[in-house]
Amino acid sequence: MPFSQIARSISASATLKLNAQAARMRAAGEPVIHLGGGEPKSPAPASAIDAGVAMLKTGEIRYTPAAGTPAMRDAIIAYTERYYGRKVDRANVMASAGAKQAIMVAMMALVDPGDEIVFPVPYWVSYPDMTRLAGGRPVPVRPADGSLEPAVAEMEAALTDRTRAILLNSPNNPSGHVYSDAFIRAMVKLCEDRDIYLLMDDIYHRLVFDGRKALHCYDCTDRSVDDAKIVVLNGVSKQYAMTGFRIGWAVGPRELISAMSNIQSHQSGGPCSLSQVAAAAAIAGQQGSVARLREELEIRRNELVALLGDVPGVKIHVPGGTFYGFCDFSAHDTDSARLSAYLLDKVQVVTVPGIEFGLDGFLRLSFCGPIEDVREGVRRIKWLLDPASPPELAAGDRVFRK
Ligand SMILES: Cc1ncc(COP(=O)(O)O)c(C=O)c1O
Q1: Residue 307 shares a structural domain with residue 271
Q2: Which residues share a beta bridge with 326?
Q3: pLDDT digits (tens, 9 = 90+) for 33-89
Q4: Which CATH number does the domain housing residue 375 bear?
Q5: pLDDT band, very low/low/confident/very high, at 10 (cuts 50, 70, 90)
Q6: Which distant-in-sequence residues (6+ apart) come within 8 Å of 150 by Cβ?
Q7: Domain range for residue 387?
Q8: Residues with beta carbon inside 6 Å of ligand 1?
Q9: Do 103 and 194 fall into the same domain?
Q10: 239 C-alpha vs ligand 1 centroid, how far in Å?
């Protein structure tokens, strides 16, 4: 008997599949260089570990309210005031098992079958399938060739009477692009004019380089958090290097947050109580680890950009934030899945095909791992793609052949 229509319309996350494949190859002793990852490797902040350990020792690890503990929600309130300059109260915030769940639950609260969510290309891999899971129709908007930001008119043209929300992620996974202030302002205005929601995935908003800041949407409206149809989605995964804790959150109008909390209460219940304690402590604690992470990433970003400059035929849009470089390899192969498989097969470098993000001909190269991996990964790619390079390349005790 076939599985449900939903099960048949969804595929496994491409990035999680690649992670599993890289882990299998490493376990088999292969010298894999993983430029496909999506998590910083620095340790979680000491404040988070200490608070988590202390709680674990009490042995009292229980259910929490569906929207998160009062202490976790208070930490999100403090975060919102500190980084967005907005005072909200507990009814405006919901903690989830990662930003992923917060986005999913927001979609489930907004979308009826056939409703549309509009987002720019390139997009985070999960957005189309999440929209489908919620019963909706994903509407990706391609920018003009050579750009990573659609024109406002292109976004506007994609809106229909079925559009429930525009979904933005700035800085962006996979491109590292920080959307221009003018674009963010225009999207806030467009959503207000059309009376639709703006879902703002801010998971990388503190990982921005060159002394810049990503403009946040509350700075573009005079409306209160309850009146603005804006939902800010965020979490501890990237900025605090706490991916495995699985804590994210949503901030938005109280009626929507209440509907989302009802959905979450039946879907999973409150997020892990131990993780909430650790996440709240990370938010309240010293913020030095975030600054250090951003500085290290900026160094690695600079290195990646410089090294790729030497690879014939490859163009990189300099990432303004995140830990991803989105590189145009179309001069070598316009089929990014084929090129990614070729790199893995020939020189054991893991990359993510651009097609997974809606843009073929590109590969996403992560620089969240050690700088040596960035150097070695690009060295192998350059050797393989450069017709003038020698037929063999030594990598430790391994020799690659063309
Ligand atoms: C753009 C974007 N949004 C959301 C998430 C989900 O983060 P988490 O569920 O770990 O909080 C990710 C993770 O890769 C991401 O890249």
Answers
A1: no
A2: 317, 364
A3: 999 988 999 999 999 999 999 999 999 999 999 999 999 999 999 999 999 999 999
A4: 3.90.1150.10
A5: confident
A6: 120, 121, 141, 142, 143, 144
A7: 5-43+288-401
A8: 38, 98-100, 124, 169, 173, 201, 203, 235, 237, 243, 248
A9: yes
A10: 11
